[in-house]
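Q&A FORM
Asked by: J.P.
Topic: structure of Substrate-binding domain-containing protein

PROVIDED:
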Amino acid sequence: MDPNRKTARAAAALLAVAATALAGCGSGTSDTGGPSPAGAGCPAVLQAARAAVERAERAVTPWNGPTTGPAAIPGKSLVYVAQTMTNPGVAGVANAVREAARTIGWTVRVIDGQGTPAGIQAALSQAVTLKPSGIVIGGFDPRLTSQQVARAGAEGIPLVGWHALSAPGPSTSPRLFTNVTTRVEEVAKAAADWVIAGSGGHAGVVVFTDDSIPFAETKSRLIEERLAACPGVRLLAQANIPIPDASRRTPQEVSSLLSRFPKEWTYSVAINDLYFDDAAPAFRAAGKPGAGPPLNIGAGDGDPSAFRRVNSERFQAATVPEPLAQQGWQIVDEFNRAFAGRPASGYVAPVHISTAANSAGASSWDPQGYREAYEKIWQG
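REPLIED BY: S.T.
REPLY: Here is the structure written out as tokens.
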């Protein structure tokens, strides 16, 4: 199996298991109402969506993150506890943390939680036992490891999360110095605006989600709310497929949807890019062109497999990626602020939409200027 196909499935396994206790694990596809009024339009929403998409698709944007902060505190060590290193998002950030740590003069050790609750708890326990200067919570909810988090706090070890919580910034419960992530509401809006703008305000849309994961359920709800702002955009159905079951269930679900909406289905939005990897065989079997329709956008991490589909126009037209390398460097900078007794930077990366037209064949979204900015800060 392509390691990139194991990615979010393995990464989401922990979340899906844990979230079952928090939210009902629904499944299947739900219709979401009748057709929109004929000729309904949304000129103001359409204009705003086009402007937002134009901004988000800019391939080169100036660095808008921190340019001041404490000089490098020498001799520090970090442990990166990964939810699973088979997730390219988690692994990409880990590699960037290593790169940034070499630049600032620190050491990093990565411990793989193997994608299971027991494995992650054991990994975080091992990390605390090592007594590093700081620990990265790499892609899992620290509330699932509350005992280990409490031990780290008792040892005075600061924690910085990556996608550890749904919101960026510091957290008091669970206690994180800061959480590095884009804003879910901005990612959801960008994906929905891409549909509104690209369709001229007239589309039939299917949304793929996993309601067993609260973060994913929130993202899909925000996507649907934004789409509803344009009466000419009809939400045909919500395909609620748990991510661990995506490879098994998505092809059958897509085939059923194509039978029900053979012409009406023109766009798709998924809370994670992997759905389109699993949907491709069904689209291909139905004779659908790789370049669409339906035109598909992932509101997910933007892993390398998603970029391959986008760049080759194989059943995915766009993705709203995370700047994984930049976020790894930010994690190191946030720790340096913690060690210096300074507050978190408060920086949140702006959303970006990657397409074949603006990615230039890249396998990730890597904005410019952050390495130079952080190096200048650390040099003092």
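FOLLOW-UP: The chain has 13 helices and 13 strands.
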